[in-house]
Design goal:
The chain has 365 residues and is an alpha/beta fold. It folds into 2 domains: 227 residues, TIM Barrel (Alpha-Beta Barrel); 127 residues, Lyase, Ornithine Decarboxylase, Chain A, domain 1. It contains 11 helices and 18 strands. An 8-stranded parallel β-sheet has the order 2-9-8-7-6-5-4-3. A 6-stranded antiparallel β-barrel has the order 10-13-16-15-14-17. Helix 2 crosses helix 3. Bound molecules: pyridoxal-5'-phosphate (PLP).
């Protein structure tokens, strides 16, 4: 057995249904690793939900949600990512696909996407609006507004010029991508006011609360489209479980050396388990923490101290307790110190970071 994502299909889909029912105009986001599910599978769910539009991260991902290519062809071949089971059974999404990463000149895949009438391209600089208008009249575009994120987008004093430069393009909307924390209704309102005075079109927003969305919808008489990934796909926590299996177990004598790095067993370490799941699956992948509060800072420091002492808590647990790594995870296996109760064939729960998880298999029950 491998590292498997078990999905309670009924609960997962009931959650999706309720998110969609409560958010008219929702645009599901399916990008990157597909939040652990893969893009083809999420595209199938969007079709099931009966929605006409989904958002992907990059132009390369259009083919993945369309079903016209698999991960292998699009991302290039990487042996450990050999065709993931399940993708072939999902028919492609036929509705509109928004590419969230702004278009830039010289990207052949993004250029080709402009010719697809089902693709909506994001433009975040005046010069790109002009270039696309010249090269691809009739292309469908969204104009991106610079927010306090300071990521991509045009400033309000550029909006009029952007609309003028977009002559011949179909402006499908304005996009406003806000930070995850803080109050941003005021900012969204100011930016939307400036954008809509330059051109009337739907607003595509991200990371606004339900209350803020309502306020925007009351304030502006255009469609407000909310892009959602995490809450839609991962909100039903209890429906999703990553499990790995114990492939082998060895009794280890005191201070015996183990693993690639030949570290000695600690005083309390008598049993070594070899379990499925490793770096290829994203086991123990961490993003640099934003450490937003004192508790998170303390946790980060504590983890650093433990790792300096060569004791790293693993994401695997047995009997409700997290287990320690005996050494850093391998490509497709991990070495853990386990209590005597753990046996070959046992299934261990694994805590995975959904945006970096690549399970070997997904089982929808
Ligand atoms: C990824 C992304 C989203 C989805 O974010 P979640 O936090 O997963 O809901 C929304 N909008 C934009 C522009 C994004 O890039």
């Amino acid at each position: 057995m491998s590292l498997v994502l078990h999905v309670d299909g009924a609960a997962w889909r009931a959650h999706q249904d309720s998110v969609v029912a409560g958010d008219p105009g929702i645009v599901p986001v399916a990008k990157g690793n597909g939040y652990g599910f893969g893009l083809a599978r999420l595209a199938g769910e969007v079709t099931r939900l009966g929605l006409g539009c989904l958002a992907v991260g990059t132009a390369e991902e259009v083919a993945l949600v369309r079903g016209s290519a698999d991960e292998h062809e699009v991302r290039g071949s990487a042996d450990e990512h050999d065709v993931r089971a399940g993708d072939a059974e999902h028919p492609g999404f036929e509705g509109d696909v928004v590419v969230l990463t702004p278009w830039r000149p010289g990207d052949a895949v993004a250029e080709a996407a402009l010719a697809d009438p089902g693709v909506i391209t994001t433009l975040s600089r005046l010069e790109d609006v002009a270039a696309v208008a010249k090269a691809r009249p009739g292309a469908r575009v969204i104009l991106e507004v610079l927010t306090s994120m300071r990521r991509y987008g045009m400033r309000p004093d550029e909006f009029e010029a952007a609309v003028a430069a977009a002559e011949g393009l179909e402006i499908v909307g304005w996009t406003i991508h806000l930070p995850m924390i803080g109050q941003h209704l005021g900012e969204a309102t100011d930016l939307a006011t400036a954008a809509l005075s330059a051109y009337t079109a739907p607003l595509w927003v991200s990371h606004l609360s339900a209350a803020d969305l309502d306020r925007l919808r009351q304030t502006f008489h255009v469609e407000v489209r909310h892009r959602v990934g995490t809450e839609l796909w991962l909100g039903a926590h209890d429906a999703l479980h990553y499990r790995a299996s114990v492939q082998d177990v060895h009794d280890v004598a005191p201070s015996e050396r183990v693993g690639y790095w030949q570290r000695r067993a600690g005083r309390r370490h008598h049993r070594l388990a070899i379990v499925s799941g490793g770096t290829a699956n994203g086991v123990a992948m961490q993003a640099p923490t934003a450490a937003a509060n004192a508790r998170q800072i303390a946790q980060t420091v504590a983890n650093g101290v433990m790792e300096a002492g060569r004791m790293a808590l693993s994401p695997y647990s047995a009997g409700g307790h997290k287990l320690f790594f005996a050494e850093p995870p391998h490509m497709q296996a991990s070495l853990l110190w386990v209590p005597g109760s753990v046996r070959i064939g046992d299934e261990l729960e694994v805590t995975m970071r959904a945006t970096t998880a690549t399970p070997d298999r997904i089982i929808v029950e």
